[in-house]
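Render Tetratricopeptide repeat protein in 3D.
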Amino acid sequence: MRPAYLTAARNLQLGREWAVEGDQSRALEAYEDALTILCALPPERTRDVLLAHTHLAFFQTLALAGADAGQQHLHLGVSYARSTRDPLARAIAEECLSGLDVVL
């Protein structure tokens, strides 16, 4: 199971790097790959933390591209960040919600 977490985390990292470089399509594909891996794993804190980060990164990348389609990723990312109580995920969720007049 650990190799799956490492692969998902690597896809998340690559997605973030590609998003920063402006390659949104590759970034979204990497996030999609990470989500596919993570959703196949049994519930566990590590999985849920990675899901929070991946969904929030997905939302941020879609928001940078000007797409409105990321609301589902925002909702799921905030939910996972809230339930795992991961400080970094919660901070990212707060940042994502800051322009939406919603409190975590």
